[in-house]
Structures are given as structure tokens and as C-alpha cells.
Design a protein that fits this description.
The complex is a heterodimer. By secondary structure, chain A is mostly helical. In chain A, helix 3 crosses helix 4. In chain B, helix 6 runs antiparallel to helix 8. In chain B, 57% of the residues lie in helices and 0% in strands. Chain B has 8 helices and no strands. The longest helix of chain B has 17 residues. Chain B is globular, with a radius of gyration of 15 Å. Chain B has a single domain, classed as Clp, N-terminal domain (Double Clp-N motif). By secondary structure, chain B is mainly alpha-helical. Classes of the chains: A mainly alpha, B mainly alpha. At the A-B interface, helix 2 of A face helix 4 and helix 7 of B.
């Protein structure tokens, strides 16, 4: 992500890209967490791989496994 | 505020929230308001939009293309459809409105006020949605082969379209 990228984008296209990247990252994370859990990964292992705390990753994704009614 | 809204416009706002919820989106966005006008098309504005080719299928396809082109601009090639907005803030029901939708509704009120019209209708809602000059909406409209001023014209004379 260099200077040149910023230079050739309008601010609005830059912000659209930032927003789309956030949404994409979130979607990818959710997909891989679900897959890892399915393969028997623990929350602690997922957290280590993502380099975030177990509490954070569990809080963010536990509803995908045990949906609260 | 909603007491000034025509019945079909209250319905459209409610439908936008339902569409967002069906997508598991954390927020109701401006796109959902546009979709709500055409799925289902309850009045002349919705029918004029559908007749002009803005069906929910085409709008959703344009949302995917907007997402993909936003990423392509920074060198990320993907054929993924646009995912729903992040749901990590999800608490309880999905009736929170994203700034894009709130601003569209503010412009909706403004459009009615400028016409000195007390009753807020779907014509004003379309003007409010179309009035965005930054964010995803202008790019989405471009993907649909239109723009804000063309949609505002359509909103002014929906019957003649």
C-alpha cells in the first residue's frame, strides 16, 4: 500500500476501498474461524494464529457456532 | 418523525430493515432503502424504478460489482460477492441504521420540506437516496448505468417514465 496507490485514487475511491477491505477481512476471518473450529481447532489456537486474545476472538465469533436464539 | 411518512414510505423503511436482517447485516444501509423501494414495488416510484430496469436482482448484482471494483482499485482481485456489513456489533435486533441510511432519510425530509409538502412519500425517499455524493451510492448507481440526477428526475415524474 504505497504512496502511488493514494496518488492515483480519488479520496472517495480510497474510502470505498478501505471500507470494502474491512468488510472483506471480516468475512474472511469469519469463514476461516468456522472452518478451523470444524477441523477441531481450539479458540486459543485460533486466537494465537490471529494474534488476538482468546476472549476477543470468542466474543466476536462464538455466535457462529452456537447461535443464541 | 415517522408520522409524516406516507404509509408506503413507512413500509419501505421497515422493509429495508427486514432486507438487512435477512442478509444478517449489522446495519441498515442506503442500499437497503433503494432495494426496499422495488422489492416489492408498492407504488408508482417503485414501479417506475423496476420499469427502468432497477430490479432487486440488478441492484444486488451492482452491489457485488461495486464491492469488487472498490477492491480492484487497490489491487485486490476477488470474485466474492459483497458480504454483509460486519456483524460483530450485533446486539439484539437489526434496526440500527448506518450513516448512509440515516443521511438518506435526512435528505428525504429535506426534499419534502423544500417542496413544502407535509406528507413524505417514496418520491422524497428516492431523492434522499439519490442525493448521496460520496460513499458507495454514487458508485452503485454508476454500476446500474445511472446517476443521482437521473434518479431524482425519475422521482419527480415517476408516472411518465
Amino acid at each position: 500500500m504505497s504512496r502511488t496507490v493514494v496518488d492515483h485514487l480519488t479520496p472517495n475511491d480510497g474510502f470505498r476501498a478501505v471500507r470494502a477491505l474491512r468488510v472483506l477481512a471480516d468475512d474472511l476471518e469469519a469463514e476461516h474461524v468456522v472452518q478451523a473450529l470444524g477441523e477441531g481447532w481450539s479458540w486459543a489456537r485460533i486466537a494465537e494464529a490471529l494474534d488476538v486474545t482468546r476472549q476477543a476472538v470468542q466474543k466476536k465469533h462464538s455466535h457462529r457456532i452456537t447461535p443464541t436464539p | 418523525m415517522f408520522e409524516r411518512f406516507a404509509r408506503e414510505t413507512r413500509e419501505a423503511v421497515r422493509q429495508a430493515a427486514e432486507l438487512a436482517e435477512a442478509e444478517h447485516a449489522a446495519m441498515v444501509e442506503a442500499e437497503h432503502l433503494l432495494l426496499a423501494l422495488v422489492s416489492p414495488a408498492r407504488d408508482c416510484v417503485g414501479r417506475a424504478l423496476v420499469k427502468a430496469g432497477f430490479t432487486s436482482e440488478r441492484i444486488n448484482a451492482a452491489r457485488d460489482r461495486e464491492f469488487q471494483s472498490a477492491l480492484a482499485a487497490v489491487g485486490v482481485a476477488t470474485d466474492r460477492p459483497a458480504p454483509p456489513p460486519p456483524s460483530r456489533l450485533r446486539r439484539g435486533r437489526t434496526t440500527r441504521f448506518a450513516p448512509s441510511a440515516k443521511l438518506a432519510l435526512e435528505r428525504t425530509l429535506l426534499a419534502a420540506t423544500e417542496e413544502e409538502e407535509r406528507r413524505i412519500s417514496n418520491r422524497h425517499l428516492l431523492v434522499g437516496i439519490a442525493g448521496a455524493d460520496v460513499g458507495r451510492t454514487p458508485a452503485l448507481l454508476e454500476e446500474l448505468g445511472t446517476n443521482g440526477s437521473a434518479l431524482r428526475r425519475l422521482a419527480e415524474t415517476p408516472e411518465s417514465e
